[in-house]
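hiii so um. not sure if this is the right channel but i have a protein structure encoded as tokens and i wanna go backwards to a sequence. like what aa goes where. can anyone help
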């Protein structure tokens, strides 16, 4: 699998189906993805292999005796579901996950190397505006990285 990168806009239909970007689809070997809530108000989509890597690391680092760890596990691991591509190249987003991410009609897929984010377009626009100053600070902190 090559790196999953790019920003793609698509429209969610009234049944919760959304066309998956063809360029991202070509990079995947599977006919399904694992979808779950993210830390932000968007959804994360993983291949089965990347999900196994991610969830194994998370579960290995978490303790069921820690309230903080249980909170993270409940938000990221518990809501995860498998979604399959239909013949039209769409995926159906489960209702509970659509509600969590406030997905309406216009949505944005973001390829983030080993996983994909799915945002409501308006929520993503607001996120970018709200996080501009913290982004600039974080970017400044990466000044040691040479291109």
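sure thing!! here u go:
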């Amino acid at each position: 699998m090559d790196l999953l990168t790019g920003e793609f806009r698509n429209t969610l239909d009234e049944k919760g189906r959304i066309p998956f970007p063809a360029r991202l689809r070509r990079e995947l070997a599977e006919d399904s993805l694992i979808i779950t809530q993210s830390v932000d108000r968007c959804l994360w989509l993983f291949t089965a292999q990347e999900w196994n890597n991610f969830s194994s690391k998370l579960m290995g680092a978490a303790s069921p005796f820690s309230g903080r760890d249980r909170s993270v596990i409940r938000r990221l691991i518990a809501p995860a579901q498998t979604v399959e591509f239909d013949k039209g190249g769409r995926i159906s987003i489960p209702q509970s996950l659509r509600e969590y991410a406030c997905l309406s009609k216009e949505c944005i897929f973001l390829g983030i190397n080993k996983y994909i984010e799915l945002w409501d377009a308006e929520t993503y626009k607001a996120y970018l505006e709200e996080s501009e100053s913290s982004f600039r600070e974080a970017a400044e902190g990466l000044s040691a990285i040479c291109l």
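oh and Residues 48-61 form the longest helix (14 residues).
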